[in-house]
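Justification of computing resources. Each target in the renewal requires a structure prediction run like the one illustrated here; the chain below, 351 residues long, is used simply to show the kind of job we budget for.
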Amino acid sequence: MLAPVTQVSPLVTIRRRRALPMRGRVLVRAGQEVSATDVIAEANLRPEHVVLDVARGLGLPNRKIGDYVQRHIGEEVTEGDALASRRGLGTRVVRAPANGRVVAMSGGQIMLEVNNKPHRMRARVPGQIAQIEAELGVVIQTVGAWVQGAWGNGPVAIGPLQVVAKDARHLLNTDEITVSLRGAVVLAGHCGKREALEMAASSQVGGLILGSLATQLLPLARRMPYPIVVLEGFGRRPMNQAAFTLLSTNAEREITINAEVFDRYKGTRPEIIIPLPSMGETPPPMSVTHFTPGQRVRIVRAPHSSEVGRLYALMEQAPTFPSGLRLDSAQVEFDDGEMAVVPLANIEVLG
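Resulting structure tokens:
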């Protein structure tokens, strides 16, 4: 049976393709180092079209303007450029109202595709440009620690990691968010108070990494200007110990918090990346695997939600649970030595 994989990896090589939704302009070069917030490509997703009545502007019949037009279809123009002019007694000039491109000429008129504010694509991942896809995007490669989350509110930021959570079950208090955390990415445990989110905004933190978030705070969290990554989910749930240990031992390091929205179909997921020096070739992350004894696993549902352990053995026969359901299951040995039979549907492999 294929096993879902969540990355909690101390050192891996990450390759990330970043592509525009349509052809545009790549702004970086192969080999260039980029940060997560750098703009690496742009495209004009919603072009405006402006029709200019050249015949009227020059005071000529439609059929005669061809001799006076100074541009051709496909030509780029800048604001103020002359598109057509008529010299003589009282010179008349029709100029481009904005930067753009000539896309059509007909009936004494010129149509311009006007450049509006372009869609600007950020790297979202720190690293080196490993490959350029002309007019579409890039592949970025980096080496470091990698922790994937369950939910993100959208923004991306970089900053030093500050740890206020005392352990994986920590409950965030409002008074723990102070102006001293300005610009920092804060490892903060469970958040159940709207005042804590609001205080983080007023203190201008760089981001929040939460084990879990109270469900009623979800609309507010979506509106926060800083990135929020929730590692486990909603309700009061502890952070898995593997993620807490990996993050807390990297306190003070500069990290990237990418609160990208989780989308299985696009392959996007919120994440934390900590760039680290590499002493040699580092392995690529595990992406797809089968359940196998000895794997490091995390439980995603009650009664052992967020607990981490080792997959001890796969059950040869599906046991019947108190609900009456017979489910393919495994024996899991938790870090405290406890053993439990857990449905495979409730298990994720830690990459």
